[in-house]
Amino acid sequence: MKLREIAHSRTGDKGNISVISVIAYKPEDFPMIKEKVTAQAVKDYFKEIVHGKVTRYELPNIHALNFVMEDALGGGVTRSLAVDMHGKALGFALLEMEV
C-alpha cells in the first residue's frame, strides 16, 4: 500500500534543509510506519534529491515521525533552480512510498 493510505504529512524548510513529518491517521498503524519508514528508507527514496544526512525523530505521543534531510533543496530558496525550491512537494512525494 502507499504510505498516504495510512498517514498524512507536514513539511518545512530552512536554507538547504527540508523537514518532513509523517503522521499516522490511526495509532495502530504507527508501529508499522516506524518499521518501514526508516531514515535510510527515506534517504534511498529521495536519493536523487537529498545529498546529505537524513535524521529521524520519533514523536510517539502524536504517532508521528519527523525527518530532517540535509543538503536537500539544491542550495536553498535563494540558490536553487528547482521549481519547488521550498520542498513543500516532498511531503506529498514521500506519501507515495510503498510500505
TrEMBL record:
Entry's InterPro entries? AtuA-like_ferredoxin_dom
Q: Which residues form the AtuA-like ferredoxin-fold domain?
A: 1-99
Pfam families xref list? AtuA_ferredoxin (PF23544)
Q: Which organism is it from?
A: Catenibacillus scindens
This protein's name = AtuA-like ferredoxin-fold domain-containing protein
Q: What is the lineage of its organism?
A: Bacteria, Bacillati, Bacillota, Clostridia, Lachnospirales
